[in-house]
Each structure stands twice: as C-alpha cells, then as structure tokens.
Amino acid sequence: MEYAMKRSGFLRKDKNGAEADWDLLAATLGQEFFQHIVATGIARTLVGNPPRRLLKNMTWAPEKPVPLANVAQLIVNGVCRVRNSFIHGEKFIGGGDNQWERDVTLILEAHAVLKEAMNFRGIEIPQAQSRKD
C-alpha cells in the first residue's frame, strides 16, 4: 500500500525522502469512509478495541483503548499501528487472553480497510506491480 500511495502522490511534504502520507490519505478518504467501514462491519475489532502502542518500558498503552471515532484515527491509530506492530515484530508475540487470535483479527481487518480505501471515492490508488528482475 505504501508503494502505491507514494506513486499516487500521497507523499509527506515535510520529508526529503519518499514517505507515504497517511494523514493525507485519511483526509482524502474523509469521514464518509469511516462511516462506510463501521456500517460494513469489516473492522469491528480494529474500530471497537483498537491496537495499543508498546512503550519502551515494555507495557502496552493505553491500558483500555477507546474505540476509534473518525477516519484519521482509523488510518493512523488503527491501520498504521497494526502495520508498525507487525513490521517491527510486535504482533504474533504470543501471550494469554486470546492474543494470537486478536493479532490475526487486527491484521486481517487492517488489510480489509486498505482494500476498501483503494477505490473509495474514485481515489484509485494503483496496486503495486510485481517486478520482473
């Protein structure tokens, strides 16, 4: 998704390198997109019990996450947090209380949100093409 965003103009203006601008994507999608996601029910856990951040003292915060309330929170505090946790190894760490199942659910729901975003409102973020090296 980041590959496609960068090539579609969703770039952070404050950075010298090519970095995907998730805030711009959220703003472009608008609150209607958030309402669409809630109405379809494809991200119930992501919205209702969003992922938390792992702090440097190795605790998760906040202790009890508040449900996401808008498109910016959905993209940044939902999808991006799942992405960051997954890429940086904080998903699939195991644990009690059905953590494995929750991790899988959050990853699948974040992916479903990105798939919906691909063509919402005619934004049409092109899918990354496979390279033939």
Which structural category fits the helices and strands?
mainly alpha
Topology as H/E string? HHHEEHH
As laid out across the biggest beta sheet, the strand order is 1-2
Number of H/I helices: 5
| Proportion in β-strands | under 5%
Largest sheet: 2 strands, antiparallel
**Shape from CA axes?**
globular
Helical residue percent? 40-55%
Structure keywords:
single chain; 133 residues; mainly alpha; two-stranded antiparallel sheet; 50% helix; 3% strand
Characterize the structure shown:
- Strand 1 and strand 2 form a beta hairpin.
- 50% of the residues lie in helices and 3% in strands.
- It is built from 5 helices and 2 strands; from the N terminus they run αααββαα.
- It starts with a helix and ends in a 16-residue tail after the last helix.
- Helix 2 packs across helix 4 and helix 4 crosses helix 5.
- The chain has 133 residues and is mostly helical.
- Strands 1-2 form a two-stranded antiparallel sheet.
Describe the SSE topology:
Elements: H1 2-7, H2 22-40, H3 44-48, E1 53-54, E2 60-61, H4 71-87, H5 99-117
Antiparallel strand pairs: 1-2
Helix pairs in contact: 2-4, 4-5
In short:
The chain is mainly alpha-helical and 133 residues long. It is built from 5 helices and 2 strands, in the order H-H-H-E-E-H-H. The protein has helices spanning 2-7, 22-40, 44-48, 71-87, 99-117, and strands at residues 53-54, 60-61.
